[in-house]
UniProtKB/TrEMBL annotation, chains A, B:
<dbReference type="InterPro" id="IPR056798">
    <property type="entry name" value="ADH_Fe_C"/>
</dbReference>
<dbReference type="GO" id="GO:1990362">
    <property type="term" value="F:butanol dehydrogenase (NAD+) activity"/>
</dbReference>
<dbReference type="GO" id="GO:0005829">
    <property type="term" value="C:cytosol"/>
</dbReference>
<dbReference type="GO" id="GO:0008106">
    <property type="term" value="F:alcohol dehydrogenase (NADP+) activity"/>
</dbReference>
<dbReference type="InterPro" id="IPR018211">
    <property type="entry name" value="ADH_Fe_CS"/>
</dbReference>
<dbReference type="GO" id="GO:0046872">
    <property type="term" value="F:metal ion binding"/>
</dbReference>
<feature type="domain" description="Fe-containing alcohol dehydrogenase-like C-terminal">
    <location>
        <begin position="189"/>
        <end position="357"/>
    </location>
</feature>
<dbReference type="GO" id="GO:1990002">
    <property type="term" value="F:methylglyoxal reductase (NADPH) (acetol producing) activity"/>
</dbReference>
<comment type="similarity">
    <text>Belongs to the iron-containing alcohol dehydrogenase family.</text>
</comment>
<dbReference type="InterPro" id="IPR044731">
    <property type="entry name" value="BDH-like"/>
</dbReference>
<dbReference type="Pfam" id="PF00465">
    <property type="entry name" value="Fe-ADH"/>
</dbReference>
<dbReference type="InterPro" id="IPR001670">
    <property type="entry name" value="ADH_Fe/GldA"/>
</dbReference>
<protein>
    <submittedName>
        <fullName>Aldehyde oxidoreductase</fullName>
    </submittedName>
</protein>
<dbReference type="Pfam" id="PF25137">
    <property type="entry name" value="ADH_Fe_C"/>
</dbReference>
<keyword id="KW-0560">Oxidoreductase</keyword>
<feature type="domain" description="Alcohol dehydrogenase iron-type/glycerol dehydrogenase GldA">
    <location>
        <begin position="9"/>
        <end position="177"/>
    </location>
</feature>
């Protein structure tokens, strides 16, 4: 196991009815900006629950934060924060609203030239302060509710970039599984696959003798495989919804990644597919991961075999045969929840591959758990998905 | 899954060399009381590492905190804290030193009549404030390094009682697995069994459809069974030490107990064996747990069968046969690490059983995950261990 430091002070309020506890968590003496997305909170009753729970608080609203939240949109919110002297943010939505809210929180107090540098110059800019954030989660998927990560898209340059800071961890997150009851299939499926691949990025690397982290990761994968389809089949299955929701949070709150190598190459490539073609984040991951497993079958061999055996019961055949079967099983799982896994499925032309590899070339950036995946490997990964 | 609220802000610094990072975590402007136990920190080099890392800090020392820390001893520390205007506590030791330090932290700011009420009137007294605590852990076992729990013994009345408060969670805990290298077999074995039974108290109850919590619990049990004996066999096996240490922390930092019923009956009965006979905490648990499993085989049936199958591979025979085998396997594991499991092994006379049941009678207290274990059941549990 590697050395590590871990601190996750996010308070989780989990279960049905927990939105009603908001008043215990929010500060009475602050001006709050309630952020939300495309308006689903008005249809599923969450907005009404939030309003009922926050009577007497000083709240203004900012809606319209998109999936893959736009820098351009978020900067409008930053202006409102400054004009209205907002000093607390309440995110009511899914991972995109919360990621966008984290960016607003950091940008509002950013002292550099241009807030886009928070993402674009991530390695140089260290975010030490941000407005405090609370969250009501309406979509289990990204894990943003219990971490300090965010991803933001700049439309003008077709860039999708991440940043992270302990300063943007929510002070609290309300996780009421009943919010899942009204989600469309597409969002549930995205959430299952997103959480699944968050685990894979922290698990499918190389062994460092960290059996507890492995078992926790495998526990989340098993639970997603078991409970995810139940949620898809019956949107009112509260217990399955709860198990799915808690799994998605545990998939990316930092815990399973402590003391082990992490990959995140699938995400880095996937973000480019979203940036160029607007494909849902989870779907880009489902495209890239099988290619990543295929191309990295040597480097990841031990962990792919362990994953294949413990998750899918694959223990017969040569290593290569077992790896092939394991990739097939992984693809079949994604397809079984309705997520397609090839580039043609999303009408992505072959030319996109060159655009993506050029971008990595320009950035001079290598990715993966050994930082040894460059443009050539990325080309192979994506060509395998044509 | 039940509703729950979870917040664990303890910062963990894990790995070899991490004691050297103490200066980054401790406040420069506070007067620190370094608390320790019987003096092993002077032999194993931990004291020297702590002193080297804290040059320039204003630190005084208080040693002699016993295993099962004594109220009488801790109150001496409280006097020193008040006289010397100490405003930060640094615990350097195992779970007992840290539990004792938590009590000092709460008692120093306690405004009631007598600080013993923190434990004795636990249900009435709510600890809202305490001195801040940092910890360097020298013995993996109790999980105290990442929770707000403590157990204190009052010698004058032979009482061993617990309290808990978020206010006594350490601000940080340093976990350097190298501290294990110098531990005697007895303490390693105690740590393995203590952590194992912490998991069991949160796992071996009744199912509430919380598969992720179950798998995390099972992951810790598997890891303790696998890595614990390696540590016993080779005290310098850093990797096994690290896996054992992280498992013990994860066993009782609250996470696996979220959303599920919890028992703690084995602990409540075990505490009485320590109070009357001074038996090591972990050993009392190893005595009581098999009796608890036996007497509660109906109430705990589903979870005992699941535990037997997933942990010990027991899947043949009637339910009762499988439960018997599962109890035998559990006892055999404890014995394999050198922990005896019957009352005669510790020369506890049969009369003690009556003294313990009278005490529960007097307190009018029922225990277990359904609060339905009273004196009669406790008598049966302990008689089974004669």
């Amino acid at each position: 196991m590697y050395n590590f430091e871990f601190k996750n002070p996010v308070k989780i309020l989990f279960g049905k009815g927990k939105i009603a506890k908001l008043a215990n968590e929010l500060p009475k003496d602050k001006k709050i900006l309630l952020t939300y997305g495309g308006g689903s909170i008005f249809k599923n009753g969450v907005y009404d629950q939030v309003k009922a729970a926050t009577k007497g608080f000083d709240i203004i609203e900012f809606g319209g934060i998109e999936a893959n939240p736009h820098y351009e949109t978020l900067m409008k919110a930053v202006s409102i924060v400054k004009e209205e002297k907002v000093d607390y943010l309440l995110s009511v939505g899914g991972g995109s609203v919360l990621d966008g809210t984290k960016f607003i929180a950091a940008a509002a107090l950013f002292e550099g030239d241009e807030p886009w540098d928070i993402c674009a110059k991530r390695s140089e800019v260290s975010i030490q302060k941000a407005l405090p954030i609370g969250a009501v989660l309406t979509l289990p998927a990204t894990g943003s509710e219990m971490n300090g990560n965010a991803v933001v898209t700049r439309v003008s340059t077709q860039e999708k970039l991440a940043f992270d800071s302990p300063a943007v961890m929510p002070q609290f997150s309300v996780l009421d599984p009943e919010v899942i009851f009204s989600l469309p299939d597409r969002q549930v499926a995205n959430g299952i696959v997103d959480a699944f691949i968050h685990v894979m990025e922290q698990y499918l690397t190389f062994p460092v003798n960290a059996p507890l982290q492995d078992r926790f990761a495998e526990g989340i994968l098993h639970t997603l495989i078991e409970e995810g389809p139940k949620v898809l089949a019956n949107r009112n299955d509260y217990e399955a919804a709860a198990n799915f929701m808690w799994s998605a949070t545990m998939a990316l709150n930092g815990l399973i990644g402590m003391g082990v190598p992490q990959d995140w190459g699938t995400h880095m490539i996937g973000h480019e597919l979203t940036a160029y073609h607007g494909i849902d984040h989870a779907r880009t991951l489902a495209i890239v991961l099988p290619g990543m497993m295929d191309i990295r079958r040597k480097e990841k061999q031990e962990k792919i075999l362990q994953y294949g055996e413990r998750i899918w019961g694959i223990s017969e055949g040569t290593s290569d045969e077992r790896i092939d079967q394991t990739i097939s099983k992984t693809i079949a799982f994604f397809e079984s929840v309705g997520i397609k896994t090839t580039l043609p499925d999303y009408e992505v032309p072959a030319e996109t591959i060159g655009r993506i590899t050029s971008r990595f070339e320009e950035r001079g950036m290598k990715i993966g758990e050994k930082a040894d995946i460059g443009p050539k490997e990325i080309q192979l990964i994506l060509e395998g998905r044509l």
